Amino acid sequence: MPPIRLRGMTWDHRRAVDPLLATQAMFAQQHPGIEIEWSSRPLHGFEFTPVAELARSYDLIILDHPFCGDIAASNCLLPLDDIVTGDMRSVFVGPSLETYTYLGKIWALPVDAACQVAVSRPDLMARLENAPPADWAALLDLGRKAARHDIKLAIGLRGVHSLMTFFTLCANLGRPCATSSREPFADLGTARSALEHLRDLLALCPREALDWNSIALHDVMVARDDLVFCPAVYCYGTYAEADQRRPLRFHDFPGPSGPRGSTIGGTGLGISAHCVNPEAALTYACFAATAATQSAFTLHHGQPARAECWSDPEINARFGGCYRDTRKTMEGCWIRPRFAGYLGFQAKAGDLIEHHLRGALNERDLLDRLQKLFEASAT
Question: Which of 153, 249, 300, 315 is 20 to 30 A from 207 in CA distance terms?
Fold first, then answer.
C-alpha cells in the first residue's frame, strides 16, 4: 500500500525549517505509512500571506495566531479541540495555547513559543561593566554610557516590528491597545508615552534600526561589534548557540513597569480543511506537540512551546539560558488582536509608526490615522 503523502508549509529560518526536517526520521519510525514534504516562505510571507490561500495547497501549515479571526471566518482549517484534552491544555508555556483559541475553537497547536524580550552581546556588556537593565530608565542609562564608548543600543523597527514594540510598551504601561475594532484603538496618553519611549530609544540606536526586522536585528548584533543591547525583539534562541560568531544572551523585557505586557509571538501548527487525509495530519500534529518531539526540535535550533522544555537544564545550557532567563516575560505576555480583518490593520499600522519614527508623520496625525485604520479594519 503506498504511503500517505502530506504537504507542509513553514517559514524560512533554521529555527523553523531544521527541526521539522531533522525529526522526519523520528516520525517515520513511529508512523511508517505517512510521509511529509516541507516547503518554506520568507518571514514577510509568514506574517501576511492569508492562511486560507495556503490551505488550498498545503495540508499542514505553520502559522501566526493573528490569522485566527480570518481562519474562523473562512473555516479554512480544522478545529483541533478533540485532540487537546485534559492535561494537554496546560503543558504549553505562557499563553501559547490561548493564542490559537478563538471563538471557542482551537485552530492550531503551539510548536514554537516566543515573545518580545531583550537580547545582549555579553562581551560588550562586560566591556561596559554593566548588568542587563531591568527597566527603561536603566536601559537609557546604558545607552548613554555605551555612547561614550562608541557603542550603541539596538532595536528592529521596520514596518510591523514598530507596531509590535508599540503594542508591548502600551501593555507594559498598563493600558493595552484594544483587541476589538469596536473599541478605541489606544488610550491616547499611554500611546504618547509609548511613542516617547520609542523615540528616546531610537536616539541611542543606529538609524538603520528602522530598516531591521527581528531576524536582521539578531544577524547584525552577531556580525557587528558596536551593538550592545536590544530591549525588545522577538526571541530567536538559536542566536545564543555556540556556533554563532558572537553568541547572544537573552533577558527579560526591561519595560518601564518591569517584564510584563510583551506581545506574544511564536507559531502554531494548523491542518487544512481541504486535507484529504485529515487523520494522518492529526497524527503529525499530535507528534509535533509532544514533549519528546519538542525536546528533539531543540537539538536542531528549534524553539519549544512545551513548558518543561523551558525548564530543562540541558536545553537552557545549549541556548545560553535563554528560556530560563526570559520565562517571567513569557508568562506575562499580552495577546494582540485576532479578529477577522485585523491583519490589514497590522500591515499598514506598522508602516505608519515607522514613518513617524523617521520624522515623516507627526504624533497627532499618526494617532488619528491609527484610530481610523483600526475602526475600518473589521470585515
Answer: 249
Helix, coil or strand: residue 72: helix
For 68, the grid coordinates are: 485566527
Per-residue model confidence (pLDDT) at position 1: 74
The two beta strands, 60-63 and 4-11, are parallel
Owner of C-alpha cell 543600543: 153
What's phi and psi for 152, nearest 5 deg? -125, 160
Q: Quick check: 340 and 72 in contact, CB under 8 A?
A: yes
Residue 123 · residue 228 · CB < 8 Å: no
Strands 116-120 and 249-251: antiparallel
- Alpha carbon distances (Å) from 28 to 22, 39, 200, 283: 11, 18, 52, 11
Q: What per-residue confidence (pLDDT) applies to 379?
A: 64
Q: How many Cβ atoms sit within 10 Å of the Cβ of residue 379? A: 12
Report the pLDDT value the prediction gives residue 43, as an integer from 0 to 100: 79
Which DSSP string corresponds to 362-379? -HHHHHHHHHHHHHH---
Low-confidence ranges of the chain (pLDDT < 70): 379
Report the largest interatomic distance among the alpha carbons of the chain, rounded to a whole angstrom: 70
Q: Residue 240 carries which side chain, given as an amino acid letter?
A: A
293-297: long-range contacts at Cβ-Cβ below 8 A with a sequence spacing of 24 or more? 293/23, 293/26, 293/27, 294/111, 296/19, 296/22, 296/23, 296/26, 297/19, 297/22, 297/23, 297/111
In this prediction, residue 31 carries a pLDDT of: 97
The SS3 assignment for 254 reads coil
Cα(96)–Cα(85) distance, rounded to whole angstroms? 15
Q: Sketch out the chain's domains with CATH numbers.
A: 4-114+264-320 (3.40.190.10), 129-262+341-376 (3.40.190.10)
pLDDT at 361: 98
Residues 6+ apart with CB under 8 A from 345: 337, 373, 374, 377
Instruction: Determine if the pTM surpasses 0.90.
Output: yes
User: Strands 101-102, 105-106: parallel, antiparallel or unpaired by DSSP?
Assistant: antiparallel
Give the Cα separation of 167 and 126 in Å (integer).
Answer: 31
In degrees rounded to 5, what are phi and psi of residue 53?
-65, -45
Dihedral angle sign, alpha carbons of residues 169, 186, 156, 353? negative
Distance between CA atoms of 204 and 198, rounded to whole angstroms? 10
